[in-house]
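User: My notes are a mess, but here's the protein and nicotinamide-adenine-dinucleotide's SMILES. Can you give me a structure?
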Amino acid sequence: MRFKDKVVLVTGGAQGLGKAICEKFAGEGATVVVADINETTAKATAAEIEEKYKVTAQGINMDVTDDFAVHTTMEEIEDTYGGLEVLIANAGILKAREITQFPVSEWRQVIEVNLIGYMICAKHACQIMQKRKSGSIIQINSKSGKKGSFRNSAYAASKFGGIGLTQSLALEMAEFGVRVNAVCPGNLLDGTLWQDSLFKQYAQTQGLTVEEVRKKYMDQVPLGRGCSYDDVTSVVAFLASDEASYMTGQAINITGGQEMR
Ligand SMILES: NC(=O)c1ccc[n+]([C@@H]2O[C@H](COP(=O)([O-])OP(=O)(O)OC[C@H]3O[C@@H](n4cnc5c(N)ncnc54)[C@H](O)[C@@H]3O)[C@@H](O)[C@H]2O)c1
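Assistant: No problem, the inputs look usable. Here's the predicted complex:
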């Protein structure tokens, strides 16, 4: 119960990895705020978590790209729960296209959600955490934040930027006792993003069948399997806990060794 009575905000927490992160913290006693543009699913996820883990969970509508909405949400969290100990900047989107065919509006949208959305959420969380002289911010980055991604330039650019932002915030917030880190997961092949859209997008942009895409990405992993939600949530919880009190400005690979290939 490392997070008993701590307040944790997870952006993009309604489904997928974000939901798994919400459950991990709830399982260790945290009060969890599930923030997502998909309000209906965010509320359903929060209700499910309250029922399953007997903790307080709140589902709210929040677009990470909307500075005013994020500011208001953070103020409400502070008023309602008395503070914010952990921010998980998880909301992210992916649009894969060849650069010659990439509409600038779509490229910009990926940067807007994945990079600027992270900045906006971190900014307002830092305002609360700075006052209270403690806190932990963790960005859900990607292995594509350290290595280019084939026909997937917007996503890789947004995630590379996220590591620069993480390191810079870590430097700026260190004197206030606020730690800022990122995790870089490999391919969550059985998760929502791959199942709902990535297999199709990569098959199309790479001229492969869905089965060939799965084989291609499995073959890149020395440990021989895709990344699971549990692989990621255990590292996220460790980084947010006092056990990681000497870690800041890091971007931890959770890839089964994929970056070595
Ligand atoms: N799936 C993977 O293989 C993988 C690998 C590495 C990193 N990641 C990262 O993990 C994070 C979660 O991805 P996922 O696989 O669970 O994807 P997902 O698409 O299943 O979930 C993303 C969630 O973010 C929400 N969201 C999207 N735009 C938003 C916005 N503007 N404001 C608030 N919420 C918004 C969506 O509604 C959704 O609930 C992302 O940052 C992604 O880049 C995923």
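The pocket of nicotinamide-adenine-dinucleotide is lined by residues 11-12, 14-18, 36-38, 62-65, 90-93, 113, 117, 140, 142, 185, 187-188, 191-194 (CB under 6 Å).
User: Great, I'll file this with my notes.
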